Amino acid sequence: MMKDMTIGQFYNTDSVIHRLDPRVKVIFTLVYVMSLFFSRNPVLYVAAFAVLVFYIKLSKVPVSFILKGLKALGMIILFTVVINLFTVQGAKTLVEWHFIRITDAGLKSAIYLGLRLCFMIIGSSMMTYTTTPNALTDGLEKMLGWMKRIHVPVHEFAMIMAIALRFVPILVDELDKIMKAQMARGVDFKEGNLMARLKKLVPIIIPLFVSAVRRSNELALAMDARCYHGGEGRTKMKPLQYKRNDRIAYVFVIIYLAMMIAIAIHF
Amino acid sequence: MDIRQKLIDIKNVTFEYFRRDAEGNVQDMVEALKDVSLEVTEGQFIAILGRNGSGKSTLAKHINALLFPSEGEVIVDGMSTEEEDNHLAIRQTAGMVFQNPDNQIVGNLVEEDVAFGPENLGVATADIWNRVDAALNEMGMNAFRNQSPNHLSGGQKQRVAIAGVLAMHPKCIIFDEATAMLDPQGRKNMIAVAKRLQEENGITVILITHHMDEVLAADHVFVMKSGRVAAQGTPAKIFAQKALLEDCGLCLPVFYQYMEYMRQEKILTDRMCSRIHTEQDLLACLKEAYAPGGVGDWPDKKGTADAVFADSPTDGVGKPKEGLLLNHVSYIYNKGYADERKALDDVSLHIGKGEFVAVIGHTGSGKSTLMQHLNGLYLPTEGNVYYDGQDITDSDFSMKELRQKVGLVFQYPEYQLFAETVEKDVCFGPENMDISRVEAQKRAYEAIEAVGLPDTIYDSSPLQLSGGQKRRVAMAGILAMQPEYLVLDEPTAGLDPYSAKAILQMLKDLQEKQGIGIVLVSHSMEEVAEYADRIIVMDQGRKCMDGPVWAVYNQIYRLEQLGLSVPVGNRILVTLQQMGYSVHTQISRMEDIFVELARWKSLMGKQV
């Protein structure tokens, strides 16, 4: 089940999109998602779809991988679409059976919502498919850098996020080990009612928590030993710097935005 | 005095801290260091020896300005740790590699982690790349630079950690028990790296450890006991003080103990012994003295050694009614996925009641997977597992009973303690077995006694105990279920020799007095030689040897082919045999080998 969950994962390959500055991708994603709300015109959706296809093509992320991610959210999308289909009521009735009444407006709304959701999910997961978590953290840190002036600890938040990303797989492993160790002491996690099962989590959560605290203490010492003293005066091995491709990409983003606005106004 | 510069000067340092109870009231004051003075000259290889809790790690953290003396002063490269402005410069000068490989790596990629130190120091980007390249090359980790540290082995992670320190261009590197969590091969490599950095790069090395075989290469050794420096001097001088070392809870390297015995029995002369610094030296010396003409290959290479069977004949026919039986078991991880991996490959074995069996093999040879088959945590992909003649996958088989009968103690079991008191934690297992609370408590008390802990410990929080005590509590938690078999994954990992010995003796007692079958997964060949009766050797998921300890250990050529080390005692015996002497080789315990060496010497009657 977890293996099919491709959303949020990084797809490791080399492409023009992968090499783009993370900030460009963040901004494009924001613009793209916003643009889907400009109007409910078929032309706009056709344009958004065309751009998405082009984007995916450039990124070299296989379509099957993307669809797998979409499938994981299939139930949620379907649910929203069905609710819309039945609840949005228009003038012209298409189907009527007992209390169910599907109208033209309902159908239209359901189709648009479904497409919008799919485009949004694919558009935003393209960002994580093509950007390492570290690059994404770096990008966000730099983009939100101005917030340091109003005393928001942006660097610290970014560091916390990067460390969390590093330790998630370690703690998942640890969780597995602890569960097995408690199973060896006779715990059967599949047995008993909800309350009994919740109680069985105690011998897992506590050691995991203790371990996380112990690890963070040791990590803090190790970071101290390596002269970490916050973001002040810190340099970067991989500083974010816009290159030619990033500037070209920005031009495309602006053209895209202008095009979508034009479509929204004219059609 | 040496003309070289004094790099570290620790003057009369005392370090105290308050121990508090749960409410935050001061319980008592602990003096972790008492009036410690120590000097290190630039370019030296220094070792600080001591058992767990002797204060050696506390001392190391003073050199790195991570802890500060309550009294006295620490001066690193002319800078006192008292001045806060000096801290960054001190930490850059004296880098530190810690014990746990995972908990000191910050970066999500190897190269990004190595860059962490230079980034903090404000080094320019281009220079960071140069430093990272150089450090990774020095550690032989360049090929892994774009990998996640999570995919590396423990030894490789420690190399990354060293590279991270090297990239800060330190004058001194402190290895704070950096070998404690590695397997013997990883430990050996780590010491070699430290030695190379000192000899070729002129970096001062301070090695903190409880393994005496690691300090042979040191220029100067400090021995710590209860927060004080109990002795100091060259390794030779320190090694000669046997009584003192025992008092400090340390243990001489095994080859050294054999050498000392042979010197005492006049098998080797004092002059010969003065030239012996390694196991190889010892064997070479023996050959030189007793077979000047040279000796041939190891007997098992020539096919003259006793046979060791890799396959137990257990093809389902006449399968034993008693004990644990694996019949042609294979296990595949992530079957059907891209990362599918065969962890066990057609393994058949039988473990009888009351046996003491050791399972040895490299990291990744399938030992852990094997042990988890013994109590049904893993079920075989192919083949069958039987407990007392019954297939554990049968529908009427009680998995709960199997888990109770076959107690499994994982590596670092203390990390699974969770209850507020020792008593409650130990009761957890029995209480899962549907027995009365009173009975569970009774079993818990018996188990706590069996692991050698006092009854005053019942109400203590497991978190407040020492490392060795925590491990005993965790083992008591399994013993309280009254198992017939105890399967343990490296029960002595990370413990000092004194605590390790006590744990192993405890296991031996459980086997001899209560008839509990012991299956011990171990990396330490010497520990297996002393305590086990039978060895199973695993390699790449296959069982490749299975037999009495002596029979396996006499297969020196084969074990070397597998990249496993052979205890020096059996090497000595087989070497003597090779030289044409008639010695008994069907033994493996040091005590027995001593007796045999004395017998051989008296028969020979020849003086050297």
Topology:
The complex is a heterodimer of chains A (267) and B (608).
Chain A: H1 16-19, H2 22-35, H3 42-59, H4 63-72, H5 74-87, E1 93-97, E2 100-103, H6 104-130, H7 133-143, H8 154-184, H9 194-199, H10 202-225, H11 244-266
Antiparallel strand pairs in A: 1-2
Helix pairs in contact in A: 2-6, 2-11, 3-6, 3-11, 5-6, 7-8, 8-10
Chain B: E1 6-20, E2 26-41, E3 45-49, H1 56-63, E4 71-76, E5 79-80, H2 87-93, E6 94-97, H3 110-114, H4 116-121, H5 125-138, H6 154-166, E7 172-176, H7 184-201, E8 204-209, E9 220-225, E10 228-233, H8 235-239, H9 242-247, H10 254-264, H11 270-273, H12 279-290, H13 299-302, E11 324-333, E12 341-351, E13 356-360, H14 367-374, E14 382-387, E15 390-391, H15 399-405, E16 406-409, H16 422-431, H17 437-450, H18 467-479, E17 485-489, H19 497-514, E18 517-521, H20 525-531, E19 534-539, E20 542-548, H21 549-553, H22 556-561, H23 568-578, H24 590-604
Parallel strand pairs in B: 3-8, 3-9, 6-7, 7-8, 13-18, 13-19, 16-17, 17-18
Antiparallel strand pairs in B: 1-2, 1-4, 4-5, 9-10, 11-12, 11-14, 14-15, 19-20
